[in-house]
UniProtKB/TrEMBL annotation:
It is a multi-pass membrane protein. InterPro entries: DoxX (IPR032808), DoxX-like_oxidoreductase (IPR051907). Belongs to the DoxX family. This is DoxX family protein. It comes from Tsukamurella paurometabola (strain ATCC 8368 / DSM 20162 / CCUG 35730 / CIP 100753 / JCM 10117 / KCTC 9821 / NBRC 16120 / NCIMB 702349 / NCTC 13040). One of its GO terms (cellular component) is plasma membrane.
Length: 145
């Protein structure tokens, strides 16, 4: 029986997955610009890090849409968001905020923070029934633990 939970997991998983897939596609198509952004943010080895990030977003985003290895894909994308927060969001918000309230409102409204929360929720909840993990028995392996 289909539940509202499965439908919401599908909507969340597919929406976030498509967003990352499209983002990764754009970054992979223009690697020099993305590497320059990484260099400006002070990320070590910007050429390598930007290439890995672009392909991770592309591949893991597609896996998330399909619901294939969905928990792993969500966790991997959560790592990219943690990196974005550490290298880009946090320094920007710290530099622009003059009060604790200003800092909190800017930080918690950042898309990277909100995506991190959704990705962690998907990694914990799993992909739901409308995912390739279900018929392949992958999700059942996570649930046996």
């Amino acid at each position: 029986m289909t539940t509202a939970r499965d439908l919401w997991l599908l909507v969340a998983r597919a929406s976030v997955g498509v967003m990352f897939f499209i983002s990764g596609w754009g970054k992979a198509a223009n690697p020099k610009k993305f590497a320059a952004d990484f260099a400006a943010w002070g990320i070590p080895e910007p050429d390598l890090a930007s290439t890995v990030t672009a392909w991770a977003e592309l591949i893991l985003g597609a896996l998330l849409v399909l619901g294939l290895l969905a928990r792993i894909a969500a966790a991997g994308l959560a790592i990219t968001m943690a990196g974005a927060i550490f290298y880009s969001v946090w320094p920007t918000v710290m530099g622009a905020s003059t009060t604790p309230t200003g800092f909190l409102s800017q930080f918690f409204y950042s898309p990277e923070w909100l995506l991190l929360l959704v990705l962690l929720a998907l990694a914990g909840a799993g992909p739901g029934r409308f995912a390739l993990d279900e018929p392949l028995g992958i999700e059942a392996r996570f649930q046996r633990r």
